[in-house]
Amino acid sequence: KISFEVIKRLPRYYRYLGELKSNNITRISSKELSRRMNVTASQIRQDLNCFGGFGQQGYGYNVEDLHEAIGDILGLNNGHKTIIVGAGNLGRALANYKSFEKRGFKLVGIFDINNIKIGQNIAGLDVLDFNEAEKYIPDLAPDIAIITVPKEAAGSVAKKVISLGIKGLLNFSYTDIDVPDGVEIENVHLSDSLMTLSYKLEQQKKL
Amino acid sequence: KISFEVIKRLPRYYRYLGELKSNNITRISSKELSRRMNVTASQIRQDLNCFGGFGQQGYGYNVEDLHEAIGDILGLNNGHKTIIVGAGNLGRALANYKSFEKRGFKLVGIFDINNIKIGQNIAGLDVLDFNEAEKYIPDLAPDIAIITVPKEAAGSVAKKVISLGIKGLLNFSYTDIDVPDGVEIENVHLSDSLMTLSYKLEQQKKL
Ligand SMILES: NC(=O)c1ccc[n+]([C@@H]2O[C@H](COP(=O)([O-])OP(=O)(O)OC[C@H]3O[C@@H](n4cnc5c(N)ncnc54)[C@H](O)[C@@H]3O)[C@@H](O)[C@H]2O)c1
Ligand SMILES: NC(=O)c1ccc[n+]([C@@H]2O[C@H](COP(=O)([O-])OP(=O)(O)OC[C@H]3O[C@@H](n4cnc5c(N)ncnc54)[C@H](O)[C@@H]3O)[C@@H](O)[C@H]2O)c1
Questions:
Q1: Could you identify which of A57, A154, A160, B97 might form a hypothetical disulfide with A173, taking C-beta atoms 3.0 to 4.6 angstroms apart as the criterion?
Q2: How many CB atoms sit inside 10 A of residue A28's CB?
Q3: C-alpha B94: how far from its chain's center?
Q4: B103: nearest CB among A99, A185, A191
Q5: Could you tell me the fold of the domain covering B4-74?
Q6: B11–A196 C-beta distance less than 8 A
Q7: What is the distance in A from the centroid of ligand 2 to the CA of B153?
Q8: What's the pLDDT tens digit per position in B2-49?
Q9: CB neighbours (10 Å) of residue B127?
């Protein structure tokens, strides 16, 4: 119902509106929002009209209402339970990131297969044995699994959590994972961003 | 010269070709590449033609040559020197990630302003005081700064490293940073991926 291009912009709108809100700004015109976000004012009005309007001639948009409405569309206000599989460097960093919980993503479990890590306390949770996933995951009932294992293990880890009912995967490993219909996956390829930056720097040098 | 849409696909081609290479696969047809990458075979041929062809009728593409050619275009083979500013959870995880160096990004410095962290050894480097950035950065001569500080500090950190000649920024903080012409920035908003996943799960529930 809302186009893919608009969806891609929603998290960014949410971030800006959150910033305005924490700076106690109560309203904003599409013109100001446009300048701040580097998106045309007409594109903004079009995007926001997709879900109910919200703008008032002469007034602009109410920051708090709009922030909440976008949060609703993004499904943030229903609360999500996440687990992290792979308690390594990246897994720990993500586990300790307090802001995910502020945005409605509560960490309920951390898993690994390394005996030294199993039982360690990270962010208030004891690391569980992923080889016993069937024992824990049904009770924890997470809807999102954050995958931070080496790429060789990513496929089998995905398969296992999907078999236990998890429908959302956030994949950080350096490989793409195939998922069946009904399961959603977001791949975060940090190295892609670094390579894109490298390409842009290369082009700059040629100018 | 190469369109933005093609550029966006390059890191992914590079990743797949790297996987084929490490599995000792020496050649691949556009049809097989298309199936693996979920991009049409004609799109692939079009993309790869942008930089010199490489495909041979009846043979397909030579994996190693193509991998190297894309690496060249992405500027990976010139080597880059990176610094990390913000030796917190995420900064440390990135510092310990060995694969960046394998792809030509050598970490030459880590900075922080917290006295407890300054002087600590992370990934073989002693954390330096970012308040003395002028003292260190010119000699280290990095071309990329990875920014992993809290969002309130991101803008001033970016300003400082740019003033010291750094032309490429990889920003992980939960805010967008404005940069002057001639400076390139890639924003990695991990929360955007989580929010997009949340949206997709929300849509699935409605089906
Ligand atoms: N660290 C980074 O900055 C970074 C950057 C880009 C990509 N990545 C990717 O993220 C992933 C994790 O990176 P890292 O640096 O944290 O690695 P790491 O080696 O520190 O951590 C990986 C963890 O996964 C565990 N593990 C391995 N197989 C498992 C399995 N089958 N089930 C459960 N746990 C398992 C290991 O015991 C280890 O604790 C890798 O795929 C890496 O390519 C990391
Ligand atoms: N940890 C994650 O998984 C995660 C996820 C998404 C986004 N982020 C973003 O990445 C950034 C870092 O997150 P984190 O979890 O590592 O935070 P952290 O608090 O563990 O680390 C931040 C570090 O930056 C240092 N610092 C603060 N101001 C500085 C300055 N002016 N100059 C140099 N160093 C300074 C602090 O001393 C600290 O060591 C934040 O902006 C956060 O929003 C992190």
A1: A154
A2: 20
A3: 11
A4: A191
A5: Arc Repressor Mutant, subunit A (1.10.10)
A6: yes
A7: 9
A8: 787 888 889 999 999 999 999 999 999 888 888 888 888 888 888 888
A9: 22
